[in-house]
Amino acid sequence: MLSRLIIRNYALIEDLDISFSHKLNILTGETGAGKSIILGALSLLLGQRAESRYFYNQQKKCVIEGIFAVSGYNLSSFFVEKDLDYEDETVLRREISADGKSRAFINDTPVNLTVLRELGELLIDIHSQHATLEINDEKFQLLVVDSLAANATLLTAYQENYLAYRKDTARLKELEEESRQAKADLDYYQYQFNELEQASLINDEQEILEQELTALSHAEEIKRNLIAATYLLNNNDQAAVVQLKESLSQLQHIERFFPSVKELSQRLESTIIEIKDIAAEIETLEQKTQINEERSAEINERLAIIYNLQKKHRVTTIQELTDIKARLSDKLYSISFADDEIEKLKAGCSKLKAELIGLSDTLSASRNEVIPSIEDRIKEMLTEVGMPHAVLKIENILLDEDQLNYTGRNKIQFLFSANKGQEPAPVNKVASGGELSRLMLSIKSLISRHTALPTIIFDEIDTGISGEVALKVGRILEKLADGMQVIAITHLPQIASKGDAHYFVYKDERQDRTHTNISLLGKEERVTEIAKMLSGENPGEFALQHARELLETGY
């Protein structure tokens, strides 16, 4: 519900602040007074394209702000989806600068015009003679039928199953594509796995083989140096062991009269034993060191296998090759069992689809059952509003099972004829502005008690009617406003008299400029305004009395 509308610096409006009733709001005023300007400002708030040439003052920005009570509209999911703060009293604001740049806000959070427009469509439905309304939208037409058929619970159950079905069919398609691609690559994966499997790779093998190969490649040099080392330590007259023994003998010779060297003698003796052990180990190493070209070739062949695998898979270690082998094994396993998962998912999708078809058939039957009642009730209401020959036909086309969608498998289409003998056709092709307004009024009045509807604005719904028909249109608007907020712009006193709040739009001149203003009329002001609508600028006592009679039920 639109609680309050603030307009600054737009067209002939310098500054307006309007608070609306939650029921039936009436706007009246002379032609050209600015009623359409107010609607234009509201359209900007709802995301319409802005032009700075319509500013009241070209040096200032235009600001339009709407405060909406939204607690009854189940809009919290919209705010969550758009990452916006939800407030029961939601504020929409549009700012347009003099250079044409526009900014939009929802509860002080900046948004783009698309988001502003999406929320605006959920809050306000502006119906003018020159606008194509939601009545031409298949979604709205289906909403009308489902609302009156009380299909909310059934439709929710269907939609939950439908979303699950869509999710599973998408996953099935993904698995089938993966399986197709995997099977195409199966031989390649198997070849790679077999190659790694046959290599019988062992962690740390590469480092050990590389070290052994290095030793074999330098075996002659190693053997020569080991022999030399052994010779220097132990195998000639000048060998280290011989020299150390001679040193030990010298020390032992003086031990009996110089005890201080005894400890040194013992240490030197230990050193000689250690050097003898080192020399023995060097000699053993020298004897084991062989020039083995056959072993070198064998190691080179093994390393070549490892290096080729590493190059092929673009890695540098055996551990990485082992990891690749494990991944290939997982892929081969998945491929071998993918068909089982696919078949299981196919069975689940078939079951869900069968359930969906059953639910859609139930929905379709419910819709078919209520359609004659809707057609009859709309015809009665159209007759009341001066269209006795008007007919609304509702076609319910059952789609193929493969055409299941979010709302079932029905295509609803409204066909309308306003004149006797005229074949019903799609609404947008045959209804005039005034006829469309009264048709929409009848439909909205019918469904307002069954579902939460946005605020609806009727711009000159009274076109082409008068007298008793106008009075009936006023009563329907009054009844419609029991369940939703209605704003009606009218020139007819019969309609104006039914409002819960009556606003008068007028022009005045100040400082050599024309301004559009609006005022909420009090009781006597309203009597006078309706009397003027009945008889002209200077109403007599008869017109005033008639106005009081029209307003009698309101006081």
UniProtKB/TrEMBL annotation:
CDD domains: ABC_RecN
UniProt GO cellular component terms: bacterial nucleoid
Presence of the UniProt keyword DNA repair in the record: yes
GO molecular function per UniProt: ATP binding
Stretches of the chain forming a coiled coil according to its record: 165-192, 261-302
GO biological process, one term: SOS response
Primary role: May be involved in recombinational repair of damaged DNA.
Family label: Belongs to the RecN family.
Descriptive protein name: DNA repair protein RecN
Source organism phylogeny: Bacteria, Pseudomonadati, Bacteroidota, Sphingobacteriia, Sphingobacteriales
